[in-house]
Design brief:
Length: 262
């Protein structure tokens, strides 16, 4: 495996054996994280998903880019710890904070594809990564890992292209769970749950609740990141409230889950 520094318009390209990395990434940093390293981790993960496990159709692009975007955060979870992975997953979900929610409301599998380049954007990469995170939380770590390994064996090593329908079937077979509601909402649907927050500056009480998630977030180990006067906290979504010290309203962000913030 090698990399080449190339003047390309996008961050990287997962060519087999030699990934291209955009020339101006070298030496830059983002919140203390070397950018070219993170892009390279993404392209290395493509050697498994994207190059070895190939997609059946351009409409299934999220199976390559979304899964690999999430695998990148899993690398940092193993290498640098949960705090780094949490920060990357906060960044991954930030695309859904825009007011128009355009990318968050796009289905991961579009009905028609006119130009494949139209699919290279936040929906496939970031929403796809968030949905992969939700699959992990829904199935549990063991079943999620088994499912990925089985996907690699039955589609990558067997040289069979992977479709979204086939991926759901494999996930259900490995976990013993019916995932129709999950895929209808997160993969084929246009819904986005709402995170509604309240702040009482006299008591320091921050409260929150979830709306319009069709019950799919119930019982999942979803975290929220809370930023308050230079301090960063991680709190479980299920807790619903926390008392903070400080006069200014905190900033609250979901960890790896697309949400409308209210």
């Amino acid at each position: 495996y090698a990399t080449a520094q190339v003047p390309i318009p996008f961050a990287g390209m997962e060519n087999a054996a030699t990934s291209f990395l955009r020339h101006d990434l070298y030496g830059q940093s983002y919140r203390g994280q070397n950018v070219v390293e993170e892009v390279n981790v993404h392209e290395v993960a493509h050697m498994w998903f994207g190059n070895r496990v190939t997609i059946r159709d351009y409409a299934d692009l999220w199976l390559s880019e979304g899964i690999v975007s999430y695998l990148t955060t899993m690398f940092y979870e193993a290498a640098d710890g949960p705090a780094m992975a949490r920060e990357l997953r906060v960044r991954m979900a930030e695309f859904s904070a825009s007011n128009d929610l355009h990318d968050a409301r796009q289905p991961l599998v579009p009905g028609t594809v006119t130009d494949p380049m139209d699919l290279v954007g936040a929906t496939g990469y970031l929403k796809g990564g968030c949905v992969t995170h939700l699959l992990r939380l829904t199935l549990g770590d063991d079943a999620f890992a088994r499912a990925l390994r089985r996907t690699y064996a039955e589609y990558g090593l067997a040289q069979r292209p992977l479709s979204t329908v086939a991926f759901q079937t494999l996930l259900e077979a490995e976990s013993g769970r019916d995932l129709d509601a999950f895929f209808d909402y997160w993969v084929y649907g246009t819904q986005v749950p709402t995170l509604r927050t309240g702040w009482d500056n006299t008591t320091g009480l921050l409260t929150w609740s979830i709306e319009d998630d069709a019950g799919l977030l119930d019982g999942l180990a979803v975290d929220l990141q809370i930023l308050l006067e230079g301090e960063t906290l991680a709190v479980a979504l299920a807790v619903g409230e926390v008392t903070l010290t400080g006069e200014r309203p905190p900033t609250i962000r979901p960890v790896g889950v697309p949400m409308r913030l209210r």
